[in-house]
Amino acid sequence: MSGFSRGFGSRDTPKTFAACQKMWNDASDRKKAKGYLILGTNTELSWNEYRSTFEVRFHNNCIVEYFPEFKIINACGYSTSPTTQGRISALTGCYIAQNAGLGYHESTRVNGFPYFDGMRIDNHGHVLEEDRRPDFKTVAKKEVVQRYTNLFRRIEKLCIGRYELGEWANTDNGNLTGSEALRLLENALAEGETFLPGRIVRCILPFHATVDTSFRELLKTAKETYRGHYYKANDGYETIEVK
Asked: Which of 80, 172, 211, 237 has its CA 20 to 30 A from that of 205?
């Protein structure tokens, strides 16, 4: 029995109750003297006589429990750990990994489904249908995105000409935060103002940038910097179910 010595997912890696049972029964009493079989670094297989199941423990945490018809997985608080994910994948035949880029509430995915402690995997490596939970992610509301886009379009148009005249070269920002300044600018534009107070604009645009940075680049940086602040301040997020 070489276990993990031939690599995760090798033919020697037990993926079912039957495979664990065979490995356990074939092992010598000497190898089982401590009550477990070593599968790899900090990874052991043992028999739970109280539950009549096999367990694989990683760093003394049970990450996979084998029943005759399925397996239960539990990352024990380490669901984002590539090492723990690799062991669970190898021991069950499922694919578990991170996919945070899509904004899922649960970024750890098992065969594309949101992970949770106690998830069951059948003997072919598939998530049981009853454990394929609904998926959710947080997205920006379309109307708030459009509002922010329109706001910055107006700010850009009004700012560029005045900046080229050097209008705000030595303006104090009045200790406003960028988010506060953005709110004041939006209010001023909503009231039909065509003159933007320099102390407010200076909070939005990083005038300390080098001479090699164009004014349009400053505007682009400011737009991206305050986008999240604006969405949050204007109830701009919603949770949707991912089909």
From this structure: 237
